[in-house]
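Let's study a protein:

===
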Amino acid sequence: MSFRETPRFPEDISYGSSGGPTFKTYVYEGFSGVEQRNITWSEAKHQYDVAHGIRDRGDMDTLRAFFYNMRGRGYGFRYKDWADYELVDEVIGTGDGVNDTFPIIKAYTSGANTYLRRIYKPIASGFSVKVNGVTVLPATYTLSTTAGTIVFSGGNIPPNGHAVAVTGEFDVPVRFDTDQMSASHDGFQVESWGSITLVELRADEI
């Protein structure tokens, strides 16, 4: 599959967008009205509508150029979800003195339940790592901004029982959900595109 790390989807357009996590659940209702629910996606796919972020002709021109270069649904790209783009002292694992690789995750807790979301597209700028509550030097680890992992170098592997936490921002890997740009000319210097859907890509698509 084809994914482009740059350019990122225009931030000023994504700022006015709507969307969030989507699950897929089949609901079967019997004659008595009793339901059976089958959760077919254990992992959410995020979906967004960026049409609301288009405010003027300049925004539409920017989006048109981006759409051309992504070849519609052809290429995936980074998207900033302004409603959920930060990690703050997020614990991603606990050291055992041997493991050097820690996938980046974000936890969403509600009562006694916790959903773990895998983060694949962290942003290097401003990213930091703590081991046992102490910020470690960037030279002691490698941050993969394309795979979403922290790999500690030899001699710097977190000791047994030491929590590894990260702080920083991240993007969502997405693609357009159409190959056709359906823009309309609404008046002088005014264009619109009714609905512009972006869908999240799975790990093996990025």
Q: What stands out?
A: The mean pLDDT is 92. The CA atoms of residues 7 and 68 lie 13 Å apart. DSSP finds two helices and 19 strands in the chain. The helical segments are 11-14, 57-70.
